[in-house]
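Write out this protein's structure.
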Amino acid sequence: MKRAVAALLVTFFVAPVPLALAQQSEVLKGEAAFGGWRADKPGTQRLLTPQDLPKPYVSDSASNSPSEVRRPRNVGTKLPAGFSAELIASGISNPRVVRVAPNGDIFVADSRADQVRLYRPGGGGSKPAEEAIYAKGLSSPYGIAFHPFENPRWVYVANTDSIVRFPYKDGDLKASGKPETVVADIPDGGHWTRDIAFSPDGKTLYLSVGSASNVAEELGDPPGGPAAWAASEPLGAAWGYERGRAAVFAFDPDGSNRRSVATGLRNCSGLTVQPATGQPWCVVNERDALGDNLPFEYATSVKQGAFYGWPWYYIGNNEDPRHAGTRPDLAGKVTVPDVLMQAHSAPLGIAFYEGTQFPAAYKGDAFVALHGSWNRGMPTGYKVVRLFFKDGKPTGAYEDFMTGFVISDDAVWGRPVGVAVARDGSLIVTEDGNGTVWRITYEGKT
């Protein structure tokens, strides 16, 4: 049922996590970290390693998609002590990626409606003072980027089959001109989300393209055979209907000078650049049908020329049994991701925190939105987590930050998708189960 668009301000009581517990967070490791939604709560930490991977087919491959239901009255989210969540917009068809312009305007890709929405924060930074449809007539828009960032003249939008840009000046509520196609002929279908981000110097535009299939089941042999293909293509690049997919690419800002950054990333649905290092980062949805806890999802820095395994290997030198013996030339050449997360939790968005509103310990860490599982007996995901960094490097551990979206084993009211840091240091979160946008603020100990 189509819902009317409305901007709301609703503040929910958030049960605080006692300070003593927050300071002595439980760290779940190995099988204890596999878990499900019942084990989720703010402050719970997990640390998974490649050695924790179970064998393929240890458990059946479940098909278990919880029903999306309306948010029950007076039900909100759960956050660490001192944090609260406000509902700032609702009734959106399909809110996905969220990005914040330098002037503080909040841009939201409403993918199913083929448009980009804009919310201008009010004086208190909460209830939008204005809202508008910034651009419409797009094609499943997802990624959004501003260029050059400090004083943007363009808003870039990644459609499922192209990248376009709109002329922009500070304060625009609607696009002032027609879209200019910057990158054409991006392969569409399959994993349709296309995210984009600029390097800190603004000279490089990154693009992520997901695979067309689960694990390239009908790929066949490459033209000329594997050896000839490997000699002329980036390490681990696939062919046929998967050519130009499961990868991250780079372009000049005008869309020229296309080059490969990394391959074997099954579905990098969230792409960003780490401020501390200038390195691109991906959060990746891994493959299905190997069992409840295999393989782990992940977040990783994207290294130039690296191959991350898909479809032949996963999480290092672990060969997918469905492609056994197909690419022995790639053995030992797979880059292991930086942060491993619960299998099938479906990470979709990532944002590094460089604000000053949250406690100082959060600075430099990253938030990741987990959309939630379907290929798992016990649902997992449906939350926002915090990845820990030390001196700009990931520790490998992560922590539940925003939970409470799951009602029961077969019902959820919220599915987090996008995360972004607002100009005032609050955290903006989109979820497409009920079509809402949230603002998380920190006010100190409770």
